[in-house]
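Many introductory courses stop at the sequence. We go one step further.
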Amino acid sequence: MTLVVGRLAGSGFARKRGVLEVKRVRLSGAARRQQIIEVAADLFSRKGFGGTTTKQVAQAIGVSETTIFKHFASKEELYAAIIEAKAHTEEILGSVTPVASQQDDAGLLRSLARQMIARVQRDPALMRLLLFSALEGHSLSDLFFRSHMQRIDDFLGRYIADRVAAGAFRPVDPTQAAWNFIGMVTHHILLRELFGQKPLPHLTVDQIIEEIVSLFLEGVRASLRPPP
């Protein structure tokens, strides 16, 4: 049976039929920690935080539960490490901030949408983790929201507020407008990654992003025409 090696090749992972499998190899401490994060993330994304135990994580890797606790003092600490490893919020904000400084509205929104879609395509577990976190309502769901979603919302909201103040955008509520744009992108991601909807055959991802950006900007840009 052919195994497709996961994105951490050589670290003891493989994927078969969408499920993370683990090869038993001797790993360094850092590699073992990363292996635990990847396997736990896979289990959390399929069973939720409440439905996954550290014992199950250990069994999936083929180590003792004691090994898990050598790297993470608790399941909560492990989950927090997963959020830190998978959110990539700094990467996203780092890529769009220079565009924001140029006041390139379409360029900023295009870049943000592309980053959001590409990140989930590379790591579909992130979206499932996010939804499980919200539905279960455990204390770490707030950590997920604050460390990832809220920072992107706040960044885009501040940009929109600045453009409203400059007269480039009509006087919309900046936070609601940011939610509206991110909501369009997120809905596209949900259709593809969670519900398995096939993309429209006549549209590429770039064309879909362009549609989203155009629709949003047509709604928020200040009109140059005088009122009737």
